[in-house]
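If your schedule permits, I should be very grateful for your opinion on a structural question. I have a record of one protein: its chain in single-letter code and its fold written as discrete structure tokens. Kindly check, if you would, that the fold set down in the tokens agrees with what the sequence suggests. I remain grateful for any guidance, and I place the record below:

***
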Amino acid sequence: MQSHILSIILFTPLVGALLLIFIPKEQKDAIRWIANMFSLAGLLVSIPLVPWFWAQRYEPGFKFMEGTPNNWIPSIGAGYVLGIDGISFLLIMLTTLLGWISILSSWSAIENRVKEYYIWFLVLQTGMLGVFMALDFFLFFMFWEAMLVPMYLLIGIWGGPRKLYAAIKFFLYTLFGSVLMLLSVLFLYFYNFRQTGQYTFSIQALYQTAPHIFHDPAYGSTFAIILFLAFFVAFAIKVPMFPFHTWLPDAHVEAPTAGSVILAGVLLKMGTYGFIRFALPFFPDVVMHPKVRFWMIFLSIIGIVYGALVSLMQKDMKKLVAYSSVSHLGFCTLGIFALNPAGLSGSVLQQINHGISTGALFLIVGILYERRHTREISEYGGISNVMPLYATITMIMFLSSMGLPLLNGFVGEFTILQGTFMENWKWAAWAVPGVILAAAYLLWLYQRVFFGTVTNPKNEKLHDLTPREVLTFAPLLIMAFWIGLYPKPFFQILQQPVNQLVLTVRPDYPGIGGPVNASAPPSVPIVANAAVPATASLAKGTK
């Protein structure tokens, strides 16, 4: 099982989707039970990965690798190659957890076309897992595009009044970025052939050759920057970074609750993951270019402050949470482009934190919407009097989202700001207002919805959380306190891949350059400084 654990995790939800095809659509309860069983199975089969990965956490390179390059479609050099490091491991565990929670939360929310809903949700989970596992760019791109269709249908069929507009907008934005990324990948594919004489989509092979475009006399720095920008647009749309964020509020507001949970919790992380896995190691000299780095930091800070300010103005609870994602993901990209161990570790941990906290916030909004069928803040007030358990869980997750010490959000934001401060204290200073504004819009929302007396008669007989609803929150609450109180294991898991990534981009970075540099794994090369010729850099990377 250990040698094929990634394939087992990847295809368990897909097996459930295929099984549901043969269940009559009239048997709604049977469909719900089977979908929940397979989503839970997807979580359970991923749990053995935890101790196995923990035992190898300090080993360099990718773990649990399956397949060999070019073994799938040899004529074009595509291979079924899977593998993970500490970064993708945490994102895979987040995906299996939120996949189960999302499907469990849909039990009473979805009444029409139940069979198709659960089939597409399980297919979506397979696509997301494939993105985090693939070590072949052809395979990665297939999963990246395959994920679009289920999400488009989940929003377009089971969404709100403007669902078609939101679904088409989501699809077109992401597809535009994907086309740019595909063009860049094809160039790297042919450039790799020119350098090595081999056609391959292997990400590990591209790690060795892509960085040398910057120094290649035939192309040079300008061409490398253009290629980086194509990747940047694809991933910035998915994050989404300012100003590519406009599809997100529409998609969140119109999507069903479970769709919003998985969209915020996992799909947005595919953008930040793309930056870490591809944009940085493919174009290290571009990323360190002062002007490029300035603009990346600038757009991140704008996203942090803008998202928080717009959240303060919202009248719809779901739209408020959606814009808060723009702000929180701005912290994640800020940590990535700080380009030091603290910033990158904090960024990945904050991605996990955002999935936990914002996933819970969308569940919270969805529970009220199921009972009252409105998300207008003005419709509520004094809810804590009739739903005390719900109010308690909501307060904990609000505090988690705003970054209160002893909860998960604090650890991620503090580490990101620490890493940013080490690079430039002014960057950190501009980002700090985002923390203050997060407290403002979340506490003001809580005060308006939960405090005071029940002024609307429609809210007087609302029933508190059911056991199933409590079960959806339980793992999220446990994770929020665990990361907040004892984040050490998470930083240990991230230490090796983050240090290696920093050395790839900044070979002379103080403190981690010695022993790690000497034993660099072939999966992530050490790229030379800009002053070193491409041939010397390649020799160093493959040593």
